[in-house]
Amino acid sequence: VAAESESAKSAASVGGRRFWRSLKGINVQSIKARSSAALDSPVLFELPKGSIAGQAGSCELVDGILRLPIFRPATSSAANETPAASLPLPLGWVTLSAEQKGGPRFLEEVPSQEVEVRAEEMGLVQCPTEGSCSPE
Asked: Residue 113: is it exposed, middle or buried by C-beta count within 10 angstroms (0-12/13-18/19+)?
C-alpha cells in the first residue's frame, strides 16, 4: 500500500520532481539504498550525508517505515565497489523516516530555489514541455 507523509506531499518540486538531502546529524555513516522498498533487499549503493537525490516515485510505508525511491546521485558509492554501469536499476529505496517506529528521520526536503541554483551552476536546463528542450 503506497502512503506518503505530509513532508513527502509538500516537498520542494522542480519541473514536477522532488529533491531530498540526507541529514548530516543522523547516527549512521551513510544511507543505504536498496533494490526494493523491502527493508531486507540487497544494497545497491550508499548515499553520503549531505547528498541530494531526486525522488523517483511514490513513497511506501513498510512495517511503519516510510520508504522513498530515489535516483542514484553522482555522489553515491556502489555497494561492494560495483561499477555504476552494472547496477540493475538507476534508482534505490531509502528510508525517509522511521519516526513512526521511534527511529530517526533520514532525509529533508530541498527548497526548489536551491535545486534551481545548483542545476544552473552545473549547466543543466529544464525542459518546459516534452520534446522542446534546448540549451540556453
From this structure: exposed
Q: How many helices (H) and strands (E) does the chain have?
A: 2, 10
Three-class DSSP category at 128: coil
* Amino acid identity at 86: S
- Under a CB-based contact definition with an 8 Å cutoff, are residues 30 and 117 in contact? no
Tens-place pLDDT, residues 20-37: 999 998 888 899 999 999
Q: What confidence category does residue 39 fall into, taking pLDDT thresholds of 50, 70 and 90?
A: very high
Q: Can you tell me the distance from the alpha carbon of 101 to that of 90, in angstroms, rounded to the nearest whole number? A: 29
Quote the pTM value.
0.69
H/E/C letters for each residue in 7-33?
HHHCCCEECCEEEEEECCCCCCCEEEE
